[in-house]
């Protein structure tokens, strides 16, 4: 069956879907995107993703292309038309089509909206097989990383560097302070040498991850202590455990960084528990507070 995309008000065979070459997303990366996990026909943390979409759009002075109820309908319809119940849904909003000029179009043009969906493998059940390795790299991205911009060239270069070294992610750090920021496409966490779960506080330096936010809410509900506090590369290297969160990584254990083991090089007990807690969150099981 052909994949169906939504492009500016039309549902089209994805092989035939097109955007104008003067779309500002293509010309300048002038747009915002979101990726939502679809599990058993249900969008996971949908409100968090739509809230973040609206916030990012406000930050770059771009209106929503349609109302939130209408957008929800489009997302559901794209999933339905593609018969996808386990997958990843991608939505992108750009400033639309206008003559190429760095400043915003002098005359208002409608924002462009594209939505696609793809199937993914079943939700992971084996936490040990889900684990991976990372490398570290200086963070060379722009200053407003809290905005989910489609302009992702530094992220792409970092992910490619990780792949070439047999890793799944690049952990980025401030080259001046040595403070860890986040992954190229994930939020990064450690269980520090004292056993404290830590991830960087929210500011303009990292993306406010929806999976990050959902996991923090689950930790609070379960009475599990954590800290939103900076940590250095040196603290990371002394950590007992480490893991990533994102809409595609869920809770992903990291057992090696730059070729060296994290802790004993195995999935630790804290990350093992968090993996189970988040799996219940995805599957709609509210027993996490127990």
TrEMBL record:
Pathway: Amino-acid biosynthesis; L-leucine biosynthesis; L-leucine from 3-methyl-2-oxobutanoate: step 4/4; Amino-acid biosynthesis; L-isoleucine biosynthesis; L-isoleucine from 2-oxobutanoate: step 4/4; Amino-acid biosynthesis; L-valine biosynthesis; L-valine from pyruvate: step 4/4
Enzyme category, top tier: transferase
Molecular-function annotations in GO: branched-chain-amino-acid transaminase activity
InterPro entries: Aminotrans_IV, Aminotransferase-like, BCAT-like_C, BCAT-like_N, Class-IV_PLP-Dep_Aminotrnsfr
UniProt keyword list: Amino-acid biosynthesis, Aminotransferase, Branched-chain amino acid biosynthesis, Pyridoxal phosphate, Transferase
GO cellular component, one term: cytosol
CDD domains named in the record: D-AAT_like
EC number: 2.6.1.42
Cofactor (UniProt): pyridoxal 5'-phosphate
Biological process, per Gene Ontology: amino acid biosynthetic process; branched-chain amino acid biosynthetic process
Superkingdom of this protein's organism: Bacteria
Catalytic activity field: L-leucine + 2-oxoglutarate = 4-methyl-2-oxopentanoate + L-glutamate; L-valine + 2-oxoglutarate = 3-methyl-2-oxobutanoate + L-glutamate; L-isoleucine + 2-oxoglutarate = (S)-3-methyl-2-oxopentanoate + L-glutamate
Pfam families tied to this protein: Aminotran_4
Family recorded in the similarity comment: Belongs to the class-IV pyridoxal-phosphate-dependent aminotransferase family.
Function, in words: Acts on leucine, isoleucine and valine.
Protein name: Probable branched-chain-amino-acid aminotransferase
Biological classification of the source: Bacteria, Pseudomonadati, Pseudomonadota, Alphaproteobacteria, Acetobacterales
